[in-house]
Amino acid sequence: MPAIVRIAAAALVLGLAGPALAAPAASPAPAPAAEAFSLAPLPYAYEALEPVIDAQTMRIHHGKHHQAYVNNLNTAVKASPALQGKSLEAILADVQNQPAVVRNNAGGHYNHTLFWTLMAPPGTGGEPSAALADRIRKDFGSIDAFKQAFQAAGAQRFGSGWAWLVWTGDKLVVTSTPYQDNPLMGDAPVKGAPIIANDVWEHAYYLKYQNNRGAYLSGWWGVLNWNQANRLFETATRKGK
Ligand SMILES: [Fe+2]
């Protein structure tokens, strides 16, 4: 065998053949379409809110419940061209014209995203700012009276829902909503900017507090992130001027 033929044969055996002899490359798979919404990591560790909220509750609440709202919302958006490209706030503003699956999961995603930021490890959440404290005293009489009203709203919400402190544009109001409804929804009875929100679904407290929602509500002040409430109030009132 001439030397050149021997070299070519050896190259084939060793897999050294050039591009002309290689199998054609497979065409690259199309990249999957980006999901419209995603679950952000918690801004603290799962165990960071103990002893008020236990790590297992936080792990399931964030990783399972909130993730399910995000997944279901993305599925609903894919099925509805009218929702594609819309912000979460825009979807909520028109949610009365959408099927229940959009209402429940857009609300669930918005509410939980807000809720995580409104909590902080015990001892780190700060105090109400002078502006927020003054406004609370004006609308409720005292900080304690506001807390009582907020806890009562959470306790009296039958079944699953949320307790809220809302800036309506000219005053602070305590209210509650069923399921995953919130004050941004187009048909909300009390519309406005959320300042404080607490989740009173059993999945938020049942592992530690069982049926004692009242103990969860009174203990929850220990993880309230007043610093975030102050920022939300500052933003909401600045917009209204
Ligand atoms: Fe929840």
Description:
The chain is mainly α. The chain is built from nine helices and three strands; from the N terminus they run ααααααβββααα. The protein has a single domain (53-241), classed as minor pseudopilin epsh fold, CATH 3.55.40. It has helices spanning 3-14, 55-78, 88-93, 100-117, 130-140, 143-156, 206-209, 213-219, 226-239; strands spanning 161-167, 172-178, 193-199. Helix 2 packs antiparallel against helix 4 and helix 5 crosses helix 6. The chain is globular, with a radius of gyration of 26 Å. The site of fe (ii) ion has 7 residues, from helix 2.
- Output the radius of gyration: 26 Å
CATH superfamily: Iron/manganese superoxide dismutase, C-terminal domain
- Total of domains: 1
Ligands, ions, cofactors: fe (ii) ion
* Class derived from helix and strand content: mainly alpha
Please give the order of strands in the largest beta sheet. 2-1-3
Question: Which word captures the global form?
Answer: globular
The CATH top-level class label: Alpha Beta
Residue ranges: pLDDT <50 for 5 or more in a row? 1-24
Give the fraction of residues assigned to helices: 40-55%
Distance between the termini: 92 Å
